[in-house]
Amino acid sequence: MPLHVEIITFGFLHGPAPETHLTLDLRAHFLDPHALDPALRQLTGRDEKIHRVVMATPGIPLLIRSTADAAAAMLSGPSAEATPLRIGSGCAGGRHRSVVVGRMLRSALYTAAHARGLHTDITLIHRDIERPVVAR
Known about the structure:
By secondary structure, the chain is an alpha/beta fold. It contains 4 helices and 4 strands; from the N terminus they run E-E-H-H-H-E-H-E.
């Protein structure tokens, strides 16, 4: 029977963080891509330009791998089949950093779970990606 994981990307400026077992708050330690290039402001984490900028940010690849390992460890627990593991990935607006990290975390978690012999079903939800860019 597969273990269920739900990854939710979101923006803290659009409301409270979803209730999760693990939450990544990307705001303070990782720059918003449009801080480096204002032309990126209207794009989302689904766009290749945003993906490249976020994944080139020091610390992001390690954070993704480490979170996937932590999630796989939680899925190894004795009651992992009882409830889906919920992971949140949040940035300011929920359109850039959180989306790229959520997408890459899904891929890394498949790899980490597979390495541990765990069959996982992973759902990725982008709560705020379609919302307007936050004016700040």
